[in-house]
Specification:
The record marks 365 as: Important for beta-aspartyl-AMP intermediate formation. It holds the Pfam family GATase_7. ATP binds at residue 289. There is one protein chain. The protein is α+β, with helices and mostly antiparallel strands. The chain is 42% helix and 15% strand. Helix 12 packs antiparallel against helix 18 (479-496), helix 18 runs parallel beside helix 19 and helix 25 packs across helix 28. The longest helix is centred in the last third of the chain and has 20 residues, at 615-634.
C-alpha cells in the first residue's frame, strides 16, 4: 500500500514537480520515496513497505528498462502468479508483487488485469509503445485521480498531489456538491473538485498520442430474475462460501509484516477475525472504537468476541469533543464534503493501529453489500410488500422490526410508518425504488442551499443521472439484486471505501484489506438466489449458515446494527470547537455563497439548543460544516473573505 503520482507530456523541471507532488501524499507511504523520469514522462512513489521489504522500491522498471510502474495496493495472488510465470521461463529480481505486474503486462498486455486478484491502482509506462496505462481494482478500494492542463496529463493517488501542479487550482464543483447532498458521494468520474476526475473502479485508461481513452475490464453482474439458479442446495452453497471466504482471508494475510484486524462487534469483522486468528502464527491483534453514547457503542460485543478468539485487543475511545477535534483533519484527507461524521472515529482507530506498530489490518467491509446485510434491503422488501396492498393497516407495522435500535420509531402509527418509508409513494418499477426514501431524505438537506446555487442546479437531478448510469441488464435483475448493485457499484466505492476506508486508514499509513471484496467471492455471492442472502427479513442468511460454528451465539445471531457516530451532537455543547462557530457564522457562510446564511444560523441554533435527532438536520449540519471546512482547506475562500 502506497501512493503514487505522475505526468505524461513535456513538463519543465519534472523531477522537482514529482518530488513536490509525492511529498503531498507522504502519509500514504512514510517508509520510502522514489522518482522516475524520462523524456515526457515522470512517476513518483511514496512507499509503505509490506511485501518485499528490501527489494520492492518504486517506481520499478523491468530488466529491459522499457516498462516502468508505480503501484499502490496489493496483488494478493502474486505468489501463484509468480510461480506460473517462472514455469514459463520468467526470471525475477525481487520478491515483490510489483514485479509480477511488469512480467504479466509484458506477456499479456492490458489483459493482465483479468488475472490480478487484489486491491490496486497503478500507472505503467510502456516506452516501446509510448503509452501510459492506468488501472484501478474491480471494487474501487484504491483511489486514482487525474486532470489535464495545457496538453499535459497528470495523475495521483490523492487530489492534494495534483494541486501541486502549476495551474491546477481547487474549485468546488456544484454538481458534485448536489450529488453529495443527494447520494452521499459524487458519481465517478466526477469529484468535488471542478476539472479533476477519478478513474472509475474496474476501469483502465490509456494515454497515448495525445488522446485519453477509458474502458471497463470487469463488471458486477447478476442473473436474470427468472433464470434458474445453479445453486439449489443451500448446504453446498454454504460450504462453497466458507471455502471462498477462507481462501480470500488466507491470501490477505500475506505480508512481510504482522497483520491485525478491526473488530467492531458485528458479524462481519468477527468472521474475518475468527478466520485470521488461526492464520496468525504470532497471535492476532484486534482493534476497536468505543463510544460514550450507548446508542452507538458496541464495546460489550467487541470484548465478547476478543475473549472468544483470545486476541490481543485494544480500543480507542471516541468521547465528547473527539469527533470535533479531528474533523478538520478528516476533511483534509477525505478531500470531499461528507454528510456523516462516521469517518472521524475510523480516523482515530487507524491512529491506534499505527501506535501499536502495525501497518495492515483486515476489515469486514463489503459483507453488507455482497450478502444483503443493510436495513435498506429489508426496507425495500417491506415497501414492496406494502405496495401490493396500499390500504393495509397491518403491513406497515413491519417497519418497526427493521429498526429496533431507533426507539422513537416504535411508537408511530401505521399511517406514519407507511408515509415515512415511502411505502406507497413511488412506482415499484422505478429503477431507484429501493433507494428513493434515502435519496429523498438526503436531498431535503438542499433546502439550505443558497438561491444562487439553486439557480445553477435548477435543471439538474442527481438521482436521475445515477439512473442513467445503470447497465441495460439492470431491469432484468431481481429487486434485491438491483438494490445490491446500487450499493456495491456507487455508495461502496464512493463513500464507504473512500471516505471511511482508504482515506482514513492511509492518513496514518495503514493498509486495510477486505476479504469480503475478493472478486471471486463477489461473483459467487452475486450468483446466489436472493432468498439465500435475505431470507424473509433475516439478513446475510447464507453467511450466517456458513460461519455459525465460528462465533459465539450472541455474535452469530446478532441483528445488523449499522456503524454510526454522533453527528450534530459532536459539535455543540461541551464538545464544541471554536472553528465550528467561525465556519457557520453568517459572514463565513455568506462569503462562500453555497448556503443560505440565515437558514444555517437557525439550524445551528436549533442544534445548540437540542442536538438534532432527525436525519435531515443531522445530515445538513454535517454537510454544511464539512463543505465550509473543505473550502477553507483547499481554496482558502473562508480565510481570504475574513481577511478582506
Amino acid at each position: 500500500m502506497c501512493g503514487f503520482v505522475g505526468y505524461f507530456g513535456t513538463v519543465r523541471d519534472g523531477r522537482t514537480l514529482l518530488e513536490r507532488m509525492t511529498a503531498a501524499i507522504a502519509h500514504r507511504g512514510p517508509d520510502e520515496q522514489g522518482v522516475f523520469t524520462a523524456p515526457e514522462v515522470g512517476l513518483g512513489h511514496a512507499r509503505l513497505s509490506i511485501v518485499g521489504l528490501g527489494d520492492g522500491q518504486q517506481p520499478m522498471s523491468d530488466a529491459t528498462g522499457e516498462l516502468t510502474i508505480a503501484f499502490n495496493g496489493e496483488i494478493f495472488n502474486y505468489v501463484e502468479l509468480r510461480e506460473q510465470l517462472r514455469a514459463r521461463g520468467r526470471r525475477f529480481r525481487t520478491g515483490s508483487d510489483t514485479e509480477v505486474i511488469l512480467h504479466l503486462y509484458d506477456e499479456m498486455g492490458d489483459d493482465c488485469l483479468s488475472v490480478l486478484n487484489g486491491d490496486f491502482a497503478f500507472a505503467l509506462w510502456d516506452a516501446r509503445r509510448r503509452r501510459m496505462l492506468l488501472a484501478r481494482d474491480r471494487m474501487g478500494v484504491r483511489p486514482l485521480f487525474y486532470t489535464q492542463r495545457d496538453g499535459r496529463f497528470y495523475f495521483a493517488s490523492e487530489v492534494k498531489a495534483l494541486l501541486q501542479v502549476p495551474g491546477v487550482t481547487a474549485e468546488i464543483d456544484p454538481v458534485a456538491l448536489d450529488q453529495i447532498f443527494t447520494l452521499w458521494a459524487p458519481i465517478a468520474p466526477r469529484t468535488a473538485f471542478r476539472d479533476i476526475s477519478e478513474l472509475e473502479p474496474a476501469s483502465l485508461m490509456i494515454v497515448q498520442d495525445g488522446s485519453v481513452s477509458t474502458r471497463p475490464y470487469w463488471s458486477l453482474d447478476y442473473p436474470d430474475r427468472d433464470a434458474p439458479s445453479r445453486h439449489t442446495d443451500e448446504r453446498e452453497a454454504a460450504e462453497e462460501l466458507r471455502a471462498l471466504l477462507t481462501e480470500a482471508t488466507r491470501i490477505r494475510m500475506r505480508a512481510d509484516v504482522p497483520v491485525g484486524a478491526y473488530l467492531s462487534g458485528g458479524l462481519d469483522s468477527s468472521i474475518t477475525s475468527a478466520l485470521a486468528v488461526g492464520m496468525a502464527p504470532a497471535g492476532l491483534k484486534t482493534f476497536s472504537v468505543t463510544f460514550d453514547s450507548a446508542e452507538h457503542d458496541e464495546s460489550a460485543f467487541q470484548l465478547e468476541m476478543a475473549r472468544a478468539l483470545g486476541t490481543e485487543h485494544r480500543a480507542v475511545a471516541c468521547r465528547e469533543g473527539d469527533i470535533a477535534a479531528v474533523f478538520p483533519d478528516v476533511i483534509r484527507f477525505t478531500e470531499r464534503p461528507i454528510i456523516r461524521t462516521a469517518p472521524a472515529p475510523l480516523f482515530k482507530l487507524s491512529g491506534l493501529v499505527r501506535e501499536a506498530g502495525l501497518k495492515v489490518v483486515l476489515t469486514g467491509e463489503g459483507a453488507d453489500e455482497v450478502f444483503a446485510g443493510y436495513d435498506i434491503f429489508k426496507e425495500n422488501r417491506v415497501r414492496r410488500f406494502c405496495a401490493r396492498q396500499p390500504g393495509s393497516r397491518i403491513r406497515p407495522h413491519l417497519f418497526r422490526k427493521l429498526y429496533p435500535y431507533l426507539p422513537g420509531l416504535q411508537q408511530q402509527s401505521a399511517e406514519y410508518l407507511a408515509s415515512f418509508f415511502g411505502a406507497n409513494g413511488h412506482a415499484t418499477d422505478d429503477p431507484l425504488y429501493s433507494h428513493r426514501p434515502r435519496f429523498d431524505g438526503t436531498a431535503a438537506t438542499k433546502l439550505f442551499f443558497s438561491g444562487d446555487l439553486r439557480g445553477k442546479l435548477a435543471n439538474y437531478d442527481a438521482a436521475e443521472e445515477l439512473a442513467s448510469r445503470l447497465p441495460a441488464a439492470f431491469a432484468r435483475w431481481h429487486p434485491l439484486h438491483q438494490a445490491q448493485y446500487l450499493e456495491a457499484r456507487f455508495l461502496l466505492p464512493g463513500y464507504i471505501l473512500s471516505s471511511q476506508g482508504d482515506r482514513m486508514a492511509m492518513a496514518h499509513g495503514i493498509e486495510g484489506r477486505f476479504p469480503f471484496l475478493d472478486h471471486q467471492l463477489v461473483e459467487f455471492a452475486a450468483s446466489l438466489p436472493p432468498e439465500m442472502k435475505l431470507k424473509g427479513l433475516v439478513e446475510k442468511h447464507i453467511l450466517r449458515e456458513a460461519t455459525g460454528d465460528m462465533l459465539p451465539p450472541v455474535i452469530g445471531k446478532r441483528t445488523k446494527q449499522p456503524y454510526r457516530a454522533p453527528d450534530s451532537a459532536s459539535f455543540v455543547g461541551a464538545g464544541a470547537a471554536d472553528y465550528v462557530e467561525a465556519a457557520l457564522s453568517e459572514a463565513a457562510v455568506g462569503a462562500t455563497g453555497l448556503f443560505n446564511p440565515k437558514a444555517v444560523a437557525k439550524l445551528h441554533e436549533k442544534c445548540r439548543a437540542r442536538p438534532a435527532t432527525g436525519f435531515r438536520d443531522n445530515a445538513a449540519f454535517v454537510g454544511i460544516l464539512s463543505t465550509q471546512l473543505w473550502l477553507k482547506t483547499f481554496t482558502g475562500i473562508d480565510s481570504r473573505s475574513q481577511a478582506a
